[in-house]
Amino acid sequence: MRGDAPPKVTEIRLGESRFSKDLRRYRLARRLIGHEVRTSIISKWTGLTHNRIRSLWKAYSGTRANKLVPRHRGKPLRDLRFFLRSSQVQAESAAIAGLCMAAGLVPIKRTEKPRDPFPSVSCGETLCALFDLYCALSSNSDRPLLNMEQLILLVTALVRREELLLDTCEKCDGFVLRDRLATPHKRCIYCTTLLKAHADASSPQTGLIHQELRRTQSCSDN
């Protein structure tokens, strides 16, 4: 009796390709779960169903010494004013946005489109790698100023270019994050701080304070 014909090489390659794609989706979902990203966002970036993601969450939590990974409920952050609320947040947001631009996630020119479909598994993998780098460079690696969901929101806003833009500083060529509808501010937080410090040091009031300090020091020496 003649046995079944072996599968063709093309069929094997197609099967391996589909398996590889599915494996990448599950790995990305697991990384996003570890970063405490909401189920709705994970589903959007991986294409997995909510039920499948919940199953992965339970399995992932079971591998962390019975410590459940927090699951945030409700709607994710949508207010982009968060990234401009303070100089520190604005500076770190601009820095990590610059890394995303260097990685090809954010187009350099306004007329360009992202290198890969957005959102997608490939973009999600790159975002996770950049977020890990950001956490490693942060002064508080366990709780950095920006979380993964906020990074996703930031990059999405910069790709759309509807409310936020990424410019360069006119002094140091560093990155400046600004409101698209507001008056352009062409200096980064660090150059603005240095300029203010220099202005304060050269003000008449500061000069009088320095004179008083020198006079007090000379009196104490005598």
List the helices and strands and how they pair.
Layout: H1 9-34, H2 39-46, H3 50-62, H4 87-102, H5 121-137, H6 148-160, E1 164-168, E2 175-179, H7 189-201, H8 204-221
Overview of this structure, please?
By secondary structure, this protein is mainly alpha-helical. Among the domains are: 9-62, no CATH class; 80-165, no CATH class. 56% of the residues lie in helices and 5% in strands. It has eight helices and two strands, in the order ααααααββαα. The chain has helices at 9-34, 39-46, 50-62, 87-102, 121-137, 148-160, 189-201, 204-221, and strands at 164-168, 175-179. Strands 1-2 form a two-stranded antiparallel sheet. The model has no long low-confidence stretch (mean pLDDT 78).
How many angstroms does the end-to-end distance come to? 115 Å
Major beta-sheet overview: 2 strands, antiparallel
Summarize the helix and strand pattern as letters: HHHHHHEEHH
- CA radius of gyration is 25 Å
Helical stretch count?
8
| Helix amount | 55-70%
User: Any low-confidence stretches, pLDDT <50, length ≥5?
Assistant: none
| Mean pLDDT across all amino acids | 78
- The tally of beta strands, per DSSP, is 2
Beta-strand level of the residues, as a percent range?
under 5%
Attribute tags:
222 residues; 5% strand; mainly alpha
Entry summary:
The protein has 222 residues and is mostly helical. It has helices spanning 9-34, 39-46, 50-62, 87-102, 121-137, 148-160, 189-201, 204-221, and strands spanning 164-168, 175-179.
